[in-house]
Write a structure and sequence with these properties.
3 domains; 8-stranded mixed beta sheet
Length: 466
């Protein structure tokens, strides 16, 4: 495949790839693996069966490609082997179909020599000092290196800073003497999952691919061309890594902009949501972003700081990113101040008030609480003496989070009697199955961070936007 050409979908729906110049001189292992991939006979191994790895496994399985999934969590593996899911947008029926199509899950990383292709889909969090934590990537690379055999392709999908594939993963894999590009192959292809978005899933999202050298690029492009609508080859892993960082930094900065405007316009008595809707009418030059109680999820609050860290290594500062981070991380405190003001207007103090958060997921209609601003909101309110509870139809029990291990509680059932006892309901996540009109009829005070109540008619509640 030429590195400046894009793969296009074939009539059958699979992406196709062009042959590289000089294909007759391909190393024998490359030829053999390419033939297996193009025939749909390659066994695909996926390390990490979470919100990225499991949908990716489904995409390969739907094409009849055998998948061997690896995870360190025995409970997850046991559920998958029984045909059960632990992710809302991957139903149990889908997992059962995958099992019937040669999908297997295991905790035995000693089997990493079995797949022809190994895709790494593990978390890349930040340390407390906001530096990259590559522990999961390094551990995965070491596990692969222990069993690496000639003729395997390794693809890193975990979001990380430019240079990780070449500078971190490659030395681990090559430490035992196998030659990259000849004995094994290495590429980077950033995940682009958007959980809860019904319009896009792994097969319908174009896939950016950067190979360590042309043979690795061709193999990785051929692999993803089997399952995605379009493959976008780039010249190196570093370009592919930088692409994903750009995508998420773009979002983080624009969200910070509307969060700052929210504060300014609120002070001026202007509804920022109405302003955004009016601006959306422009058919060019504007893309709508929306304010909220803070950033959440495994990407946008984290990924820009990977670039900040690597920029410092090159003696450069990232002022836009750092300023955006300051604004976005200040939002929970701003929301809590609005709650305090709203309670004060009703003659109540925060201390002793009964406050219920609606939604602990980081975004609407998902069951993922990672990096959710709800935890910070809960912590700040409890610190001011409030009695805080929550409801989330998708998160029945709060998991132990790294920064909030003590916030262990269960979702409260929303009833008329329960809502009447609340001094304030704080909307943190606007799940679609909440009945906002019903909630507003039975709650004295609502603080809305998502404009969820915009369509509420004749509410009995006092509604405050934050």
């Amino acid at each position: 495949m030429s590195q400046d050409a894009e793969s296009e979908p074939s009539p059958g729906g699979r992406g196709t790839s062009e042959s590289s110049p000089g294909s007759a001189s391909r190393p024998p292992l490359h030829q053999a693996l390419l033939a297996r991939i193009e025939a749909g006979e390659a066994l695909v191994g996926i390390i990490g069966l979470g919100y990225v790895g499991l949908p990716l496994a489904r995409a390969f399985s739907d094409r009849g490609i055998a998948v061997l999934g690896f995870d360190v969590d025995p409970a997850k593996v046991d559920r998958l082997q029984r045909g059960e899911s632990y992710i809302r947008h991957v139903p149990d029926a889908t997992v059962r179909q995958m099992r019937a199509r040669r999908f297997e899950a295991t905790v035995d990383f000693g089997r990493l020599d079995e797949p022809d292709v190994i895709i790494i889909c593990v978390p890349t969090p930040l340390t407390d000092a906001r530096e990259p934590d590559l522990t999961y990537i390094v551990n995965s690379a070491r596990a692969i290196a222990d069993r690496l055999r000639r003729g395997q392709l390794v693809v890193l999908e975990s979001t990380t800073y430019p240079g990780t594939t070449r500078e971190v993963v490659l030395p681990v894999l090559a430490a035992r003497g196998l030659e990259p590009g000849v004995d094994f192959f290495l590429a980077f292809s950033p995940e682009r999952e958007d959980p809860g978005n019904p319009q896009f899933s792994a097969p319908t999202i174009p896939k950016v691919v950067g190979g360590l050298e042309p043979a690795s690029l061709e193999l990785a492009a051929a692999l993803y061309g089997q399952v995605v609508v379009r493959v976008v080859p780039v010249s190196s892993p570093e370009v592919a890594e930088a692409c994903k960082i750009l995508e998420n930094t773009y979002r983080a900065i624009n969200i910070a902009l509307v969060n700052e405007l929210k504060v300014i316009y609120s002070r001026m008595g202007i509804d920022v949501w109405e302003v955004i809707e009016a601006a959306r009418s422009k058919p060019f030059g504007f893309q709508a972003f929306y304010p909220g109680p803070g950033l959440g999820g495994h990407c946008i609050p984290v990924d820009p700081f990977y670039l900040t860290w690597v920029a410092r290594k090159h003696g450069l500062s990232t002022r836009f990113i750092e300023l955006a981070g300051e604004i976005n991380t200040s939002m929970p405190a701003y929301v809590v101040a609005k709650v305090a003001d709203a309670l004060n207007d009703q003659g109540k103090a925060v201390k002793g008030s009964k406050i219920t958060l609606l939604g602990m997921a980081y975004k609407k209609d998902v069951d993922d609480p990672r990096e959710s601003p709800g935890f910070e909101l809960m912590e700040l309110l409890r610190g001011k003496g409030a009695v805080v509870e929550y409801n989330d139809p998708y998160i029945p029990t709060l998991p132990a989070m790294r920064h909030y291990p003590h916030l262990r509680m269960s979702s409260r059932e929303l009833t008329e009697d329960y809502l009447r006892t609340r001094d304030c309901v704080l909307i943190a996540t606007d799940h679609s199955n909440y009945d906002w009109n019903w909630i507003a009829r039975h709650t004295p005070l609502i603080v809305d961070t998502r404009n969820a109540t915009k369509g509420v008619v004749a509410p009995k509640a006092t509604i405050v936007h934050a």
